Amino acid sequence: AQSVTQLDSQVPVFEEAPVELRCNYSSSVSVYLFWYVQYPNQGLQLLLKYLSGSTLVESINGFEAEFNKSQTSFHLRKPSVHISDTAEYFCAVGASNTGKLIFGQGTTLQVKP
Amino acid sequence: NAGVTQTPKFQVLKTGQSMTLQCAQDMNHNSMYWYRQDPGMGLRLIYYSASEGTTDKGEVPNGYNVSRLNKREFSLRLESAAPSQTSVYFCASLASGGSYNEQFFGPGTRLTVL
What we know:
The complex is a heterodimer. Chain A is mainly beta. Chain A is built from no helices and twelve strands. In chain A, strands 2, 5, 6, 10, 11 and 12 form a six-stranded mixed β-sheet that branches. In chain B, 0% of the residues lie in helices and 51% in strands. In chain B, strand 5 and strand 6 form a beta hairpin. The mean pLDDT of chain B is 92. The chains are: A mainly beta, B mainly beta. Chains A and B meet through strand 6 and strand 11 of A and strand 4, strand 5 and strand 9 of B.
């Protein structure tokens, strides 16, 4: 069985400060990892994904995540956040070759001016 | 290209009523999914369809049925709604069930069962 744990339900941070949203997973097979973002009253959008290859993956808006197999983690980081980054962030693991996703509980990032 | 569309956006039901949530995608994707989102629980898979003509249970299928009407459409039915089914429902689609490409999500249906 696979599972995902997001270690923080809420992360308040000031604008231009760095942030890390933590995600740990468990799986007995090779995994594919994703971060999705959900802005208020909207659906989910893919932020970045790890399928294979380089363990550091980046998004177009400055977020990055590093796949750490030994620590079974896929933490999301951004060196300087903006007010517009305020949203809920979900970590997910690909469950099998059916494409099913197992989601974490979500982390609400609140960026304050 | 509208992506994934869902109707209705909002719905209020009384306990015991039935309704169907509609989902359609115009990306020619093979696989489609229904999730529910509840506070503090993330998204949980209700049912999925790996390809046209097939459907399978996800993590929380009880109280729901699905129909993959054709490649474009995947509907979710509540036969007898219960307050525990108050949630936000998301439909998603994926290009291929065996490929970890991006799942595209619809805007969601916010359902309240009184």
